[in-house]
Amino acid sequence: MDEELESLRKKRLQELQQQAALQEDVQEEHQKQFEEQKKSVLRSILTNDARQRLGRIKIARPEVAEAVENQLILFVQSGQLKNQINDKQLQMLLKKIIPKKHEIKIKRG
After folding, report:
1. How many helices (H) and strands (E) does the chain have?
2. For residue 63, how many C-alpha atoms fall within 13 Å in the half-sphere facing its CB?
3. If you compute the radius of gyration of the chain from its CA atoms, what whole number of angstroms results?
4. Contact 90, 51 (CB under 8 A)
5. Burial classification of residue 85, based on how many CB atoms lie within 10 Å of its CB (0-12 exposed, 13-18 middle, 19 or more buried)
6. Are the beta carbons of 49 and 86 closer than 8 angstroms?
7. How many Cβ atoms from other residues are within 10 Å of residue 81's Cβ?
8. I need a labelling partner for 78 at 20 to 30 A (CA). Which of 19, 67, 100, 105 fits?
9. Residue 90, exposed/middle/buried by CB under 10 A (0-12, 13-18, 19+)?
10. CB 15 within 8 A of CB 45
């Protein structure tokens, strides 16, 4: 009886592990497809210079690059973007997204 119960438990655990692995694979595939679609949209709306700048920003500050990419995609989806974004326009967008640095001065008396 105990052996049967233990064998059922092992079998059920194995089934759950297989389901979890399958779900993880599906999720990874969806993420890859999403990233490919995102790259495709960005390729179509950014000039070469702007795309290169965004690539450099992605290396230095990935969270900022992600925010810019999401903002650009929202512009496309909402129909606000009619032409390609050039380097100057991307710089203006970056200035809006990147918070200004505050300089802190300590005076000693």
Report:
1. 4, 0
2. 2
3. 24
4. no
5. buried
6. yes
7. 15
8. 100
9. buried
10. no
What domains are there in the chain, each with its CATH number? 14-96 (1.10.8.140)
Structure token digits, residue 108? 């000693």
Q: pLDDT of the chain along its 109 residues, tens only?
A: 788 888 999 999 999 999 999 999 999 999 999 889 989 989 999 999 999 999 999 999 999 899 899 989 998 889 888 789 999 999 998 888 877 777 777 888 6
Q: Give me the residue label for tokens 């390609």.
A: 84
Whether residue 87 contacts residue 50, with contact meaning beta carbons closer than 8 Å, is answered with yes
C-alpha span between 98 and 11 (Å, rounded):
53
